[in-house]
Amino acid sequence: MIAVLLILIPLLTGLATFFLKNEKTVRFWALLSSLGTLAVAAIALTVQKDSSLSEFHGEWMQTLGSSFSLGLDGMSQMLCLLNALAYPLVIIATWNSKYFRPHQFFALMLLAQAGMMGVFLATDALLFYFCWELALIPMYFLCSQWGGEKRIAVTFKFFIYTFLGSLLMLIGIIYVQSLTPDHSFSLNSFYMAKLTPDQQSVAFWLFLAAFAIKMPIFPLHTWQPDTYEQSPTATTMILSGVMVKMGVFGLLRWLLPVMPVPSVTMGNYVTCFAIIGMIYASLIAIRQNDLKRLVAYSSIAHIGLMCAAVFSLTESGMQGVMLQMFNHGINIIGLWIVVEITEREYGTRKISELGGLAQKAPGMAILLVIVALANIALPLTNAFPGEFLMFNGVFNSYRSNFGIWFTVFAGLSIILAAVYTLNMIRNVFYGNTNAITEKAVDIRFNEKLALGIIVAIIFVLGVYPQLMLNITSDISEHILKAVKGTANSGAVH
Amino acid sequence: MPINLYILLAVVLFCIGVVGVLTRRNAIIIFMCIELMLNAVNLLLVAFSKMHNYAMMKEGIATGGSDGQLFVFFIMVVAAAEVSVGLAIIVMMYRNVHSVDINFLNRLKH
Amino acid sequence: MNNVFQIAYWIPLLPLIGFLINGLGRKQLSKSLIGIIGSGVVLGAFALSIAVFLQVKSGNTAALHYFDFIKVGNLSIPFEFKIDQLTSLFLLIITGVGFLIHVYSTAYMHEEKTEHFGRYFAYLNLFIFSMLLLVLGGNFVVMFIGWEGVGLCSYLLIGFWFKNQEYNKAANKAFIMNRIGDLAFLIALFWMAAKLDSVSFDTVFSQASLAKLSSLDITVITLLLFVGATGKSAQIPLFTWLPDAMAGPTPVSALIHAATMVTAGIYMIARSNALYSLAHLTNDVIMYIGLATAILAATIALKQNDIKKVLAYSTVSQLGFMFLALGTGAYTAAVFHVMTHAFFKALMFLGSGSVIHAMGGEQDIRKMGGLGKKLKWTFFTFGVGCVAIAGIPPFSGFFSKDAILLSAFQKNPALYVVALFAALLTAFYMFRLLFITFTGKFRGSHEQEHHLHESPPAMLLPLIILAVLSIVGGLVGIPDVIMHGGDKLGAFLSPVIPVHEGHHVEASTEYMLMGISTGLVLVMIIAAMYIYKNFTPTETKGFGKVLENKWYVDELYDRVIVKPLHWFAGFLNNIFERVIIDGLVNGVGKLVNYGGRQMRLLQSGQTGTYVLLMVVSMVIIFALQFFLRKG
């Protein structure tokens, strides 16, 4: 029941927002709604896995073999919390940003939240697909209506790209459904379906297409920097903070346990691309002059590591990915907040045009430096345990002899990450002020509040990561058992 | 009279219609050519149905082969409807472009 | 009995609290309050460290387990401390020298704005916290937390005056070069975790674990850890950040880049001596790299004209000595030298700070000269430091350096000769610095000459204390030949570091070696005095130019690594990403577009064409059907 609430609150409040007129009211309404969702998500954390509260089954397209089923396990608890936490942060941080037609803007934002909640909670493949698109479509409108100069071309690319992936996934879903014994879309039937290795690899590539585009994995990433650059920053925060996790989540929930054989045999190739992408994106990030593009490429590099860790098929890797999904979401929202402030206050995102902000806006500088250090996974920030576990997982990759080399090459990106992050800090915050930054003022209370919350999370999870690891330990063990159990039971040659 | 002559006549009429449609640009003449083709087909239908009727009568079925003649009526009705619509279009066209030359109607291209 | 150990977590916690208070209250608190809090917390930690030391000295050690940091599957990494002899010694050095430098800083940084003054002390306290975490850590992960923490503080403090972009560049360079080492450290960690499912010192160094590791494992792990150490402790090939790190305030150079942080690598290897004593290949590598660094840095130091740069290269060179000792298996000697070096190098850095303070920020020794007359205390204490580092008995440097040279001799006399050469260079460039700076005629501007003054007591007091320590600090490690049982340090550390067994050297040989080194050092000092007593700046030519430009190592790295990488990144960004990948993606779109446009041409709008096409198609279909049916 609680799972339904998580979807219903943003959905209904989102629809209602269309009819509000006053901008202030809209903002308060959206904030209230997101806080409500956050409260429910926090309560959801306490729900035990097998209790009646954690699952919900409703009738929905019964003739097709699909039902409206939702389920809460460790992974969805964690991601729902991230989703619910991201919205208040975004709304608070962008309190001073002006949007035309604010009621539509916030309505679409909340609808996207409902869609993402659905993705994280669905235990029915058709419902999963439905929510996947429900999250995508508001994003399309948000980017194309409120975006930057080149928004039309860019969002067109974004939409076609991700939609192509979604359609391939839909084909995959229908394909697997036709092979299940009871012709049902439910997650359990998918898990039970005894596919031959050949059938599995067909479905594997179909599903992977959608997830790899969403994450994104090199070389399918080019929509991302453009979209992040052109979207309004509030949307970018949600896109990179939460939506990108849908891809990783999809791998964990729908790909590995359903198609274990290719996940093991093809894992090395996917990891290769992921790691090439990490280095590639890090190198490109060094040369970026636009803050948004820099953060975008940095995000691609981090996601690459998550993908590699997923396919390492080790407990350490799984746990690291779960932890890092949350951390990355929080940290990158922090970075975007700073980008948003910079753009709004000084009218430019060009690194070369900024400088000396630390003198004028010390509060912002300190908070950004902390977030940036978390971005490069310094110990005692939240990203360190996550990356540590992921690297450890990659190092011990299951059935792979290349774990060490994967780790070495992936590790290069942590050096490169230091290069581009510190250069960014140096050029934006240090040095002398120039004409643009001369009249800079420090950040306001609401921005300080949002960044303060983020910094608090960074330190709490950096010092005591077990908080999160305890939530997700059961589910990651479960996934691994599903993969290795099936893969070992004779299906692998 | 052997059926061959009917067929030959129908083919000649049809070909005249086709060539007319292909070569002429005047909408009305094209229209007439289309009618010509339709009537060539009608002629064939009538001829074949009569031939069929003879064959059936030998077996003692008097009404055999009447379907073809039914179809002819059907075609004539449809053709009449078509003519009314078609002529209306041509009239509209003349009103707009003061010509019934079909090459003026190439706006689909743009 | 273990009451002290139960509150041992306060040792790092106190500086952390200081960091928080100074960091958050830097705008509200007054300067004196910030100074008192900043130094007070370190003093508190020092007092606790003494208590811990006494407890350890009476034979107690402790392994303290606080909470599970990461626990996943088989891998369990607790947040734990391990307090033993080695730890307690480093605790004393860090908090002791750290406290003195905090006191010194209250005067040295007094001209900063309150806000920045508070920021400075916050960073300094954070550094002490990280460094304490590093040495207290009971496993490699906690150590790594401190390891990266000190790197961060070093970065923040090098770039303390953040308006100057050159300083910020130096800070970035330090952090990035350290990160290269850190990556190797991490991989070593993963390797250990993969083989042993644990990274705790007690488990890893136990006999059972060591037996589980193949010799390949041990070699790889130790080599990787050593690469980590070359980053932090500025050895070839990752040493170039340390001289640039002199951009930071001088007390920072004394604390971080001389006394404590840069010795973290030595601490780590000494801590892992159980592993290293099994890795012969690695030991050789460490030995040669240490020796090469010692020589290279010493030659560069001969021709530097920036007072802090000379000291920086001297630090690199001395660290090379320590690694040489580690490589020959003389872990105690290395730790001993860490201690004495902390005293005399901190002393000299603080002394140079006093000089810079007096000269109003000038660091070029060519513009100094004759400062001894005005800055008597500074001159005297700096002189003590020089004598100590040169290795004149009974100053502290003599004993520690002698122990290192002896272990080199035991390994191979040729090593001894090279190491001795480096030691002689040390004596020469240190006294060159001393004479150029403090004797002769003043070469600066009149304004500077007028401004010359001795530093305030808050700066002199640490200098004097450190000078005393530099004189007597070596007495804890008197070699057995001179006084039986004089090597108290070795005895103290023996539970952690088993006594080194090299080839036995005859007492007479040992005396002879001491005599040779002392004699030659004296010759060097006299030579330096003769050449530099009345120094006039001249243009350097020929080989001196190469030394002055630091063997062009920075330029080499720039050409071979930085520039190509930058170019490659540019290529990826401008060409590969835009043209190839995006080109492919957009190409698909363009192809569809192009196809559509071509198809559109068929829709000419010519009714005649349509009809013709229709007729032709019908004829074709008819013909096809007709002939196909026949066939």
What does this structure look like?
The complex is a heterotrimer of chains A (493), B (110) and C (631). In chain A, 64% of the residues are buried. In chain A, strand 1 (55-59) and strand 2 (67-71) form a beta hairpin. Chain A is built from 20 helices and two strands. Chain A has a two-stranded antiparallel ribbon. Helix content of chain A is 75%, strand content 2%. Chain A starts with a helix and ends with a helix. In chain A, helix 3 runs antiparallel to helix 10 (233-255) and helix 10 packs antiparallel against helix 14. With 110 residues, chain B is mainly alpha-helical. Chain C is mainly alpha-helical and 631 residues long. Among the domains of chain C are: 279-539, no CATH class; 601-631. Chain C has helices spanning 3-6, 10-24, 31-57, 85-108, 114-136, 140-158, 165-196, 201-204, 207-212, 215-232, 241-244, 250-259, 264-271, 273-276, 280-302, 307-327, 331-358, 371-374, 376-390, 396-411, 413-438, 446-451, 457-472, 488-493, 507-532, 543-548, 553-600, 607-630; strands at 62-72, 75-83. A two-stranded antiparallel ribbon of chain C has the order 1-2. In chain C, helix 2 packs antiparallel against helix 5 (114-136), helix 4 packs antiparallel against helix 5 and helix 15 runs antiparallel to helix 16. Chain C is globular, with a radius of gyration of 31 Å. The N and C termini of chain C lie far apart (108 Å). Chains A and C meet through helix 6, helix 12, helix 14, helix 17 and helix 18 of A and strand 1, helix 6, helix 7 and helix 27 of C.
